[in-house]
Write a structure and sequence with these properties.
Blueprint (H helix, E strand, L loop, with lengths): L1 H15 L1 H39 L3 E6 L3 E2 L2 E2 L10 H10 L3 E16 L2 E10 L3 H5 L3 E4 L4 H5 L4 E4 L1 H7 L9 E4 L2 E9 L14 E5 H8 L7 E6 L5 H15 L10 E5 H44 L1 H9 L4 H38 L7 H27 L3 H6 L2
Parallel strand pairs: 5-10, 7-9
Antiparallel strand pairs: 1-11, 1-12, 2-3, 4-5, 4-8, 4-11, 6-9, 7-10, 8-9
Length: 405
Amino acid sequence: MRIFATLRIALRALRRNKMRTILTMLGMIIGVGAVIASVSITSGAKQQVENQIASLGENMLLIFPGSYSSSGARLGWGNNHTLTLDDALAIQTQLQGVTAVSPENNTRVQIIAGNQNWNTRVQGESPEYLQIRQWPLAEGEMFDDQQVRTAAKVCVVGQTDVKELFPDGDALGKLINISGVPCQIIGVLQPKGLSPEGQDQDDLVIVPYTTELKRINREDWLDIILVQAVSQAAMPIVQQEITSLLIQRHHLKPGGEQDFIVRSQEDIAEAATSTARVMGFLLAGVAAVSLVVGGIGIMNIMLVSVTERTREIGIRMAVGARGGDILVQFLIEAVTLSLIGGGIGIASGMGISSFVSSLTHWPTFTPVMWIVIASLSSAIVGIISGFYPAWKASNLDPIDALRYE
């Protein structure tokens, strides 16, 4: 019963000075609110980037051609023509951890449909491309292996091209002219939205890679090879196996300069989310400083409260209260200030993040773990900041306290 009586006394003391109590809690409200708002905004940004990475495909590895030098100038990755159809075939047939491969050759051209035209990206791919990219069709079908072998004049188009070339939305079965090659639309892709780099993924036309190489681009090299691993856990192993196989096929020295580069989805995700993670740490650091400032404010007010209530403490001790009771009373007051301020701060932070989301159309997400962390932090700050004032109050001499004016 003693603890409940002490709790009632502590709460009564807080109610007696409402304005001071509110101003004391303000530091915790701002600190916790800043933590929750910053975490919500950065978590939402990270989640959006991860969703965009996931939209690229499932368990996907990308193989790019290497760099080359011209007149002493190194032109960077992707400028050399070192990847071939034979490389893609070798990866598909010789590596057990690979479930699908799509050789890709692409170009940007002006396509024409009736009296409409549009500049878009044309990609030569295999029928497994949609499986690798996890990209379903809105209508129609994907071309098959037979159409790849015959370099058929067929294509699958994205939603942006449908909108620009066929205002009525009826694209299936129509013909489009790609660099003088008439291709029939046999499928329409579902919308994908923007890529992590901000490119419109729906602005493309997909043709069989043989059609791209023999009829449209008339090249004998690949721009990218897309590979799907059997599982996410197998991706590092498959990545290493691809590297070893291409080193052998390209007659390169192990450990020497490579004329290709293999990137996994995890590499892309790590690079894309690193900025959001750094911003999250910075914002959380600023918010942590706010929490410390709030704790100092509580300690300051509690010390003032001990001084103001010295005579009250002496009376309580004179009628039988022990030092431990006084210690608990002031600790309860400090923790109550912190917890109430923390609760209001959590609600305020979530409200601020929702407001920012509505203004900027940027998704926000508040992990439950951070709500728990914010609550525990409030309690810990309350205990730490209230302990010294409470200890000081509990060690007052009752006779000196009764004489205090």
